Amino acid sequence: MLTWRVIEPGPPGSRKFEAREEPAPTAGTGELLVRVRACGVCRTDLHVLEGDLPVHRPGVVPGHEVVGEVAALGPDVRGFAPGDRVGVAWLRGTCGACRYCLRGDENLCPRSTYTGWDADGGYAGYTTVPAAYAHRLPAGYSDQELAPLLCAGIIGFRALRRATLPAGGRLGIYGFGASAHLAAQVALAQGATVHVMTRSARARQLALELGAASATGAADAPSEPLDAAILFAPAGELVPPALTALDRGGTLALAGIHLTDIPPLHYQAHLFQERQLRSVTANTRQDAHDFLAFAADHHLRVTTSAYPLGDAERALNDLAADRVTGAAVLLP
C-alpha cells in the first residue's frame, strides 16, 4: 500500500516527507484494521510535518480524519464487523484512571495518545484504531464529506462550547478554514449571528454564502461587539484585536494546537470587564458523539477539495499557502 511518512520534520526545503510502498498493518488486541476510504488534511498534520509539534513517533504516518471500512478485527473486539464504515479521529487513547479521565475530561489525560502523532494515521491505504476510540458515522454524507467532521468538525464544536456563546448571541470567527466553516454552521443553526474575520477572499465569500452576517479582513473590527469569539488561525497576533472586539463578559476561545506568540496584552483594553481567554485542548469522545449526532440531525455543507493520496505533499503545501477553501481530503 502507498504510505506517507514524516522522516524528518522541518520547513519546506529541509524536511523529509516520503511516499513508500509498504505492507498493510495488522490489528492488535482490541483494535480494528481499517481500509482508508478518505482522509482529511488538517493543519495539525502541517504542524507535525513542519516540526511545530515535538516528535512523538519517529517516521510517523500523519492523518487523523479517517473515514474507512473495517477490514479485520483484532482479538477481543466486540460491536464491529468487517464492512462497517467507521471514523478514526485525533484522540486515540487515554488511561481511563487519572483524575481527568474520571471527571469526564479525558482530553486532559497526561497519558493520552493521538492518531498521526503517537501512532500511524490515515495517509496510507490502511490504518488501525482501538475499537473503543472508533466512531460510528452519520448517514447522508459521502466519505469525502465525512472526513473533515472527524477533527475540524469535532474541534470546532468543542471550541464553540468553550466560547460559551449565549443563546442568540453574536459570534466572531477568526480564520475560516475547515474547522471554522463547520463551527459557523453549528452556531447559525443554534440562532447565533456570525461575523467572520479572515485574510482569504475566497473564504470570506464562502462565509457569506453559509449565512455569516459579515466577512472582513483578519484583523478588522466586526460591525458590532461580540458575545464570544473563536480564533482558528494559528496567529497569535490576532488575539489582541479579537479580545478588543468582545463585549463585556465575552469569551475568546483559542482552537488550535499550535499558536504563534501572542503580543503583550493590556489589562484595560483587552481583559477588563470580565473578558475571558480560554484554550482548547483536543476533545473527548463525548464531544465527538455529540457533534456527530448534531451532524446527523442538521445536514452540514462540507466544502472540500479532493487530492489523490499520492499528492499529499501538494495538499499540505496548498493548505499552508491558504490555497484550500474549506477542507482538503486525500482519496486513496
From TrEMBL:
InterPro entries reported in the protein's UniProt record: ADH-like_C (IPR013149), ADH-like_N (IPR013154), ADH_Zn_CS (IPR002328), ADH_Zn_typ-2 (IPR014187), ER (IPR020843), GroES-like_sf (IPR011032), NAD(P)-bd_dom_sf (IPR036291)
Cofactor entry: Zn(2+)
Annotated Enoyl reductase (ER) domain residues: 10-330
Family according to the record: Belongs to the zinc-containing alcohol dehydrogenase family.
SMART domains, per the entry: PKS_ER
Catalytic activity, as annotated: a secondary alcohol + NAD(+) = a ketone + NADH + H(+); a primary alcohol + NAD(+) = an aldehyde + NADH + H(+)
Classification via SUPFAM superfamilies: GroES-like, NAD(P)-binding Rossmann-fold domains
Keyword match Metal-binding: yes
Alphabetical UniProt keywords: Metal-binding, Oxidoreductase, Zinc
Keyword Zinc in record: yes
Transmembrane portions of the chain: none
PROSITE patterns noted in UniProt: ADH_ZINC
Enzyme class (EC, first level): oxidoreductase
CDD domains: CAD2 (cd08298)
Enzyme Commission no: 1.1.1.1
Protein name as it appears in the record: alcohol dehydrogenase
